[in-house]
Amino acid sequence: MGSEHGWRLRVLLIGVFTVLAASITPLPAVAPASVVEIQGLSAPQQARARSALRRYDVPLTPPVDVITADDAAFYFREVLLEDGFSDAEVTYEFAGDRLIFRVEEGARNVVGTIRVEGGAVLNSATSRAIVEAALRQETLTPFGRIPYFEHATRVASERLVAAFAQEGYLESTVRVESTPSAHRVNLEFLVKEGRRFTIGDVKVLGEGIAPEIVASLRESLGDPYRSGDEILLRGRLSDALRNSGHFQSRIRFQVERKDDATITILLDAEPGPVFRIGRLRVTGNGQVTETTFLRRLGLKEGTRYNGKAFDAALGRMWETSAFENIEPVFEPQADGTLDIKFQTEEAPAKQISTTVGYGQWDQGFVGVHYSDRNFLGSLNRFSLDAFYSAKSYGVIATLSDPWLFRGDVTGTSRAFYARRETPAYQSSIYGGALLLEKTSNLRNQTGWSAGLEWRDTSDSTVFADDQLDGALVDYRLGAVSISQTFDRRNDPLMPMKGFFLSWDGLLATEVLLGDVSFGRLRAQATYYLPLQKIQPGRAFVPFFVLNHRAGILAPFASTQSVPIQERFFLGGPNSVRSFQLDGMAPRDSEGQPGGGLLSLLWNAELQIPIFRALYFVVFADAGNLAPTLETFDWDDTRIAGGVGARFYTPLGAVRLDYGYNLIRGEGDPVGAWQFGFGFTF
User: Fold this and answer.
1) What is the SS3 assignment for 615-647?
2) DSSP-derived 3-state class of residue 107
């Protein structure tokens, strides 16, 4: 009985295995492919896909068999899903010795809503801005919809974690939840801040360290701890020791995280000896003599070494632009002196450039600029500018010493000749000027200047038929001037935020060998208000501009009337845009402009981006120009409105405006077109 049962069981098992074997379709016997083609992806996409496959340990290195091809097709689709192609399909086939993958990406998902929940230390707008900036940077999408990439969301979450760590939350975590919806992926970043760490103690070990240095390092006690604070404190200690003559100090640091959420920073310093400056030498110099180099450097042998003073001296040499490289080599001596050798490589000093363009008044123009940043090996700057247009031509020569009196004052001498024609006059002008300038901020040109000027105006023609009440047409002018600027704009070429203030005064007198005596005072205030926050991924935002300019001229002594060449004019692309250049009243009976002694100008402008760097503009201008101080009348104010366009380029803005006169006087035009380059105000 048992043997019969065993026989039946063997028959049953044989039958089951037979059925299973018959139901399995074996993989086709295909020879491995020696050539792999990917159809449906661009070359950069193919390179990224192959790189991703290597991440999954499925390299498409021939020969490629069926199993590898099947795995590659699966992971190809996974990569496409990560990149936002939710409908992607990948198939493959073997054709002889070729393996062909066919990719159909389908529609790509884009990022929909972005929400950040949690994390009170950063408001939601700031957190969202960090996320969006990271997504745009990783996807190379500065404008418009952001394509969805899974790896980009990971980077964004890491940036968010880093932002919270910079506020002291070293244990913060971010979890990302993505919700697909009709080719849009809504993202929610869930933040858990954790504990906030603060600097509990800063300990400084070492002999010979001044107590005030230690006290300055401990000013950070109680501040939120940010990753890298220990490096900053080490740098501050190192700088303080360098400024005290300790050239060879060594500093080690250690960070201890306490259970009470405080951080102790330990700085172990070996200050080393105090050094004095020894012998100073220069090698590699050609046109620049060693005497000139060391004079501009401003360091004195025998004085105590000061790191801050040394860095400032080296910075002065770089600012000359006369060197490709300056490498200081320090040689400490046994007697406590520090010899310094400057290995230099001079840069090409001479340069020629040209400018060609078109202006509404000058029409076509050309300019040539020659500059020498190391004039006669003196490290002074010389330039020669020549210009020519349909209306004017001239030449200007300038020589500047950017370190006059061994300080940060620039001394400039200038000589010029020009034949100029404006809508009001034409004259030949030659003369010279001496200027002293100090710039406290190189980026935005905040600073002051003072000058002495002399010029001769001759061969003049004034187009107004009344000759301006007997004012001199040809004359000599000797004057002193002073000016100040205060610039807080975010960008000098394309400002959208901040403000600009300036004023200048000029006093012309016969005492300075001139023929005329008058005073001039001018002022400008411009304010830029962005209507949206300017961010790395949103450089072009709508913004509002308010501008005001005012000027006054007052003759004195024997001068009864200020020459027309010195007067104020209004009208044109940068003032009241409903008038052509200098075309606003007062005018004579033939409509020729005569200028004025009192000028007031107001501008308001709203710029709205319509496509990236292309802006639509709405503006209002108002101006008043009085021929004399006694005849000023508010009823002479002209008001204009208009529209325009701006296209911003790396070199500035291209502008087109039309201004319409809302208040017109006798002889005023209906309006005017204006075309120009650069910012309006």
Assistant:
1) EEEEEEEEEEEECCCCCCCHHHCEEEEEEEEEE
2) coil
Q: Sign of the CA dihedral 58, 62, 67, 72?
A: positive
Which residues does the chain have with pLDDT short of 70? 1-29, 44, 81-84, 86-87, 441-445, 466-470, 536-537
pLDDT at 172: 93
Tokens 């709405």 correspond to: 618
- Inter-helix orientation angle 66-82/43-55, to 10°: 110
Q: Phi and psi of 307, rounded to 5°? A: -60, -40
The structure tokens listed for 547 are 């501008």
CA distance 475 to 468: 14
pTM across the whole model: 0.68
CB of 341 within 8 A of CB of 327? Answer: no
Torsion of the alpha carbons at 26, 31, 37 and 41, rounded to the nearest 10: 10
The dihedral over CA atoms of 134, 140, 146, 149, expressed in degrees to the nearest 10, equals -80
Contact 599, 584 (CB under 8 A): no
Please name every residue paired with 354 in a beta bridge, in sequence order, or none if there are none: 368
| φ, ψ at 462 (rounded to 5°) | -100, 125
Q: Which two tokens stand for residue 483?
A: 């000016």
Distance CA 670, CA 573 (A): 16
Contact 309, 247 (CB under 8 A): no
Round the CA-based radius of gyration of the chain to a whole number and report it: 37
Which of 429, 484, 489, 436 is closest to 457 using CA atoms?
429
Which residues lie closer than 8 Å to 611 by C-beta, 6 or more apart? none
Sign of the dihedral through C-alpha 386, 389, 394, 399:
negative
Measuring CA to CA, which residue among 449, 461, 465, 448 is closest to residue 420?
A: 461
Backbone conformation region of residue 571, classed left if phi is above 0, alpha if psi is from -120 to 50, else beta: left
What contacts 228, CB < 8 A, 6 or more positions away? none
State the DSSP H helix or E strand holding residue 10, giving kind and residue range, or none if neither. Answer: helix 2-23
Nearest CA-CA partner of 38 in 26, 24, 25, 53: 53
| Token output for 248 | 């060879």
Look at residue 6 in the predicted model and tell me its pLDDT: 53
| pLDDT for the residue 213 | 87
Question: In this structure, what DSSP letter does residue 240 have?
Answer: H
Paired tokens of 229: 């604070």
Quick one: pLDDT at residue 4? 53
How much is the pLDDT for 20?
45
Q: Would you tell me how many other CB atoms lie within 10 Å of the CB of residue 212?
A: 8
DSSP-derived 3-state class of residue 338? strand
How far apart are the C-alpha atoms of 600 and 548, rounded to whole Å? 8
> Tokens representing 107?
């529609």
Percent helix, strand and coil across the chain, each rounded to 5?
A: 20, 45, 35
The helix/strand/coil state of 577 is coil
Judge contact between 338 and 362, C-beta under 8 A. Answer: no
Given a contact cutoff of 8 angstroms between Cβ atoms, the answer to whether 192 and 173 are in contact is yes
* Strand, helix or coil for residue 511: helix
pLDDT at 466: 59
> Which tokens in the block code for residue 52?
């991703």
Edge-to-edge strands, sheet with 323-332: 276-283, 337-346, 323-332
pLDDT tens digits, residue range 518-540? 999 999 999 999 998 887 667 78
